[in-house]
Amino acid sequence: MDIGGSNGKRHCTKKEKRFGIYGTLNIAAWNVRSIGNKESELVEEMKIKGIIRPVLSETKKKLIGTKMIGNCSMIYSGGFQEIRAQLGVALIIYHKWASRVTNYSFVNDGVITVRFKTNRGHITTIGVYASEESREEETRHFYKQLQS
């Protein structure tokens, strides 16, 4: 599992404060290659790296829903129960951000959107995991659905 990110802190400039920016929002995109029992490990890495909202791809998790993991919530979108899991995408958020979620949607097993209320408006996080390029027809369908 390749985990990146930054745990560096920096002070806001006067200009950033004037525009309502009071800190950085560290997000990450992690390809977990099957989430299995890695959920607690991912939450630990979030703490270590200072990541607020990681988007997880290739989770191979089935169905759609939410799940509590320690002091975090995971919103996930996966394949049907009857079909072998292939794609899957998820977003993990700390509980303090959970109260700011205004809505989320499961587009398909490779796309999820989560909208957050902020002091200055809204932020929408989109998690995407695309099909393999060798599957031309599925790839075309995926990108057509993504753009609609």
Q: What can you see in these coordinates?
A:
With 148 residues, the protein is α+β, with helices and mostly antiparallel strands. It has one domain: 4-Layer Sandwich (Deoxyribonuclease I, Chain A). It is 22% helix and 35% strand. It has four helices and eight strands. It has helices spanning 14-18, 39-49, 95-98, 136-147; strands at 27-31, 53-57, 64-69, 72-77, 89-94, 101-108, 111-118, 121-128. The strands form two sheets. Strands 1-2-5-4-3 form a five-stranded mixed sheet. A hairpin with a 2-residue loop joins strand 3 (64-69) and strand 4. The chain is globular and about 50 Å long. The model is unreliable at 1-8 (pLDDT under 50).
Itemize the secondary structure elements and their pairings.
Layout: H1 14-18, E1 27-31, H2 39-49, E2 53-57, E3 64-69, E4 72-77, E5 89-94, H3 95-98, E6 101-108, E7 111-118, E8 121-128, H4 136-147
Parallel strand pairs: 1-2
Antiparallel strand pairs: 2-5, 3-4, 4-5, 6-7, 7-8
Strand content: 35-45%
Shape summary: globular
CATH superfamily: Endonuclease/exonuclease/phosphatase
Radius of gyration, in Å, reads 16 Å
What structural class do helix, strand and pairing data support?
A: alpha+beta
Instruction: Give a quick account of the main beta sheet: strands, pairing sense, barrel closure.
Output: 5 strands, mixed
Our count of helices gives: 4
Strand order of the largest sheet: 1-2-5-4-3
Annotated CATH architecture: 4-Layer Sandwich
CATH topology category name: Deoxyribonuclease I, Chain A
Q: Tally of extended strands?
A: 8
Approximate helicity band: 10-25%
